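Internal ticket #5521
Category: modeling
Description: The requester needs a full-assembly model to guide mutagenesis choices. All entity lines are attached below as received. Residue total reported by intake: 1237.
Assigned to: D.W.
Attached entities:
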Amino acid sequence: MKKLFNSSIGRKIAMALSGVFLIVFLTQHFLINITSVFSESIFNMLSHFMGNNPLVQFILQPILIVGVIFHFVMGFVLDWQNRKARPVKYAVYKGSRNSMFVSRNMIISGIVILSFLALHFYDFWVPEMDYKYIQVLPEDPDRYYEELIHKFENPVRVGLYCLSFIFLSLHLIHGLSSSTQSLGTNNKYSSIINKISYAFGIGIPAGFCFIALFHFFMHFNT
Amino acid sequence: MKLYLKIWRQKNNKSKGSMIDYEIDNISPDMSFLEMMDVLNEKIIEENGDPVAFDHDCREGICGSCSMFINGEPHGPDKLITTCQLHMRKFKDGDTIYIEPFRAKAFPIIKDLVVDRSAFDRIQQSGGFISINTSGNTLDANTIPIEKENADKAFDAATCIGCGACVASCKNSSAMLFVSAKVSQFSLLPQGKVEATDRVLNMVNQMDEEGFGNCTNTGACHVECPKGISLDYIAKLNREYVKANIKK
Amino acid sequence: MKKITYSLNYRKPKEEYNDDDSLTVCVRYYHKFENGTQKVIKKSTGVKCKLKDWDSDWHKSDNRHPIKSSDPEFLEKNRLIRNKSIDLHSLIKDLKPLQSKSLLKSNIPNGPLDLKWGNHKNNVRLVSPANKRNIDVIVVGTGLAGGSASATLAEQGYNVKAFCFQDSSRRAHSIAAQGGINAAKNYQGDGDSVYRLFYDTIKGGDYRSREANVYRLAEVSSSIIDQCVAQGVPFAREYGGLLDNRSFGGVLVSRTFYAKGQTGQQLLLGAYSAMNRQVARGKIKMFTRHEMMDIVIVDGKARGIITRNLITGEIESHSAHAVVLASGGYGNLFYLSTNAMGSNVSAAWKVHKKGALFANPSFTQIHPTCIPVSGDYQSKLTLMSESLRNDGRIWVPKKIDDAIKIREGKLKPTDLSEDDRDYYLERRYPAFGNLVPRDVASRAAKERCDAGFGVNKTGEAVFLDFSSSIIRYGKEKALIKGLDTDDINLVRSLGEQVIKAKYGNLFQMYEKIVDENPYKTPMMIYPAVHYTMGGLWVDYNLMTTIPGCYAIGEANFSDHGANRLGASALMQGLADGYFVLPNTINDFLADDIKTGPISSDLPEFEDAKKLVEEKIDKIMANKGSKSVDYFHKKLGKIIWNNCGMSRNKKDLKKAIKDIQNLRKNFYKNIKVPGEKSSFNESLAKALRVADFMELGELFALDALNRNESCGGHFREEYQTKEGEALRNDDEFRFVSAWEHNPNIELSKLHKEQLQFENVELKSRSYK
């Protein structure tokens, strides 16, 4: 088994597994966030649960962080190795004739997403950690919604978020179908998997955009 | 037709190469691409130059020798063919054509457009066979019926000509399509199942040692494969590799 | 008075000498035997003479002095020569007509035909596994024959060194075989048997092959299929999971196993995988991109080869206890053929020059359905499977004006009415029609094109028309489906579907090359060189006349006589490599169990190496102006025009002269760019073409010598009133085996008489 994860196939399977894990997290994240559009109380309730349940906080959250770091580090390692596998580049390389732009540029969409994550952590996760564990302020189960809409007052931030979601979308369109291929799914399902990939890859980021814009305009109107 | 060629010239494995410009005239659209190269070489010889070295042999798309990267694609713009089957009618008068060798760390350049693809041989040697003696004292050929669907799939995998276009087209120089076709051909047949575990482990191991890149599922390989070998074999390889690791 | 002649002792072709080179003068006496053969008695005089001082017309002058006065010591030298001739005369004075002792011992075992091989296997000597470890075998070529032989010998325990000029052993030209492989399995229950396969092969070869060899081939054929299936060759299967068969030309049963249109590739990959297993075990040492330059003979036995590393240009010596040649055929003698660009005769030719006899060099198969030549730049011809003739009708225009208009593009073939078309095969051979054998179909196409009815730009093509079949199949389909059989568009499209299902990949290949849609307009085809039945003479054990040097596969002359049946080449290659050679070679190697390793530093190796290096230096140093391809194309033209599908005495004689002149021109005007010590394809090609130039002469000589028509060899002088081949079994029922002479025209003919004890000789008729 040790050999497995040192091999090229092992690494790509690890990449796929961590990717799928992140997709599951993303879905969950989206489902919670979307509640903010129609119900402040449900959103607060769910956020409170996620923020204070010890299982989530001390087991799932570290796993998630490890997963994110692993996925990124592995992505960089693979990309570095792949570049090394062709020391002299082609003068003309027409990748567009045989593959999708998104599939060839996962590292670019990945880096954009990474920068976004930094911003996102700075926006939500750092204050949250600060609130809970550094300043140890008293827990207020109704603060989450307010914090959320407060963040989306700034049009620049909303713009950045939306832009990042476009890259996330590009990453997901290839990432989802690619991970099933890496995990060895029979290609007789590939057309349906591709459709799901597109639907998910466009749907989820679009949903996130919608949430951001929704709160921005709600705030703008009031 | 008049054409402007930009061809990679490199004296040997140690020297540094570069793209050199050539002009060539009176090219008939009925010529094959390699015949155009022949005409160019005759012209270079006449002018006391060193002709462009390129691999070629059967010139009917089956031996897998020819290996040019033409205008950004292995085997040129046409699909499901090798360079020797590419014809000049696919180009227009006045076109500029870039001709490069297949590039990968695992395919070192020997001269000009000739590369060393012995990495493929070594992968095959590490396990691409069924260990039976060649004495002929085996079972009668018809004692093992094979489901037609599997027999056909094994055949499709076996059509690989080992040209290396998959590696050349892959942005990561990965050899997964080649290896997967070889592994699948045997593992789909009952005769080959016996050693399937060791075979997949050894061949993947050898592939990694040769310095090919990692597969990122862009799918370029199967689009450019002159024999149209399906990506499904890569998925199958992934499956088998994991299974084999669990077994061992 | 018995005549004695003077001559120079050439050690290589005349053309390779300069005027200032000195050669030893010999005296010769040609001793005639009662059976018409002759033996040369040759003595060296010890006198050396420069080429420019040699008077080749010495016998015309009165004093009969061979050395001209330009040599300062001409008087003394001439006296010495004269004395030697007197010595020789006294020696031969009492010589009686002796019984000729033939070089050709076929070593066919005794006993009934069907027991010969079994008995022989039981009687040949064996080598113990412990001793095999100490014995090396060189195999040159890694196609079906060489690949399978390497794998099997290595598996038995010998240390094999395998050589190929390609970058991988998998790329040998066996890979391009399309149709299939025959085997007498009788899976279809249509009455096939070993005897029938044997009989069909003998008859197909027009009774010019050895009964015992062919029977053995038929006998082992079914093991080939078992073997290949066991090693994972994906043959076509039926829905029940069992192997499928198809039918091929010239036979009445379905015995051909196939893997779509790539049978050769799949079989070769099978042999390649068996080789890989032995490479991994360290039993095969693989030398790719290595070309054999010469064979090395030590104490009368083949003990190694000299090779050139095609990447570095290095000349290397490799020693072994035996040398196996599996270097394929020499169809590229014609420049244009269906062979791969690199296919060449050099390995076999070098062995021939060192003493192995070359058998039936002129027996060549010209395949009728190939894509025609489209221009001077053409480098290679592509075969279209024989199976197309099942549904295609071959024709040319009836009127020569129409043919001219079609050539000029003023008329389309589809514009011509049925009455204006000449379906010449159906006209000449009503019984077999378009399905006459390959040689007959090829000659008929040439006859029409020579008469001016050719239909492409070069005038060398005929139509292969599927429209009748498309309509016929279409109507059938429409009837079955209950559709309107008078709707021509519907019928056409239904018919095209049927044709597509049968030949889709071939039609696509044609369209890629020619850029015309063969469903709409008839295909154009023309015959092309495809296979050579001739090759190194071997005995029943597949050994050449050099002890320890074996030839297998297309490189030997073996089993196909004067014409090969479809799907038999693959069978022969694998039979030789997997089953025949590994049994027979033991008998020779049994003597070598105590020999120990052969050193590659022996003087014989050094000498051979030196000669190779000299030859390369000479070619590289030549300040000519013409490229190799220029000469190769010229040679191909001479051979194709004079020794192609039909031959006659006058043309063959002309060809011999033309080739001699071309060869002189070659050594004078060849230009090879680049360096010898690097990757240099021009140099590799030049060395190959140099050998083709010599083979070409022997090829024409052989065709000239065989005063009969048989199989692929058609002499215009020997035909029936209807223009069919006329065999002469009384005088020419033999294998022509040629012994090398530096002056190729004087190569000596040995005849191996063929005995037919099990089949009756009949003439072939397709009317």
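Resolution: model delivered.
Comment from assignee: The mean pLDDT of chain C is 92.
Ticket closed.
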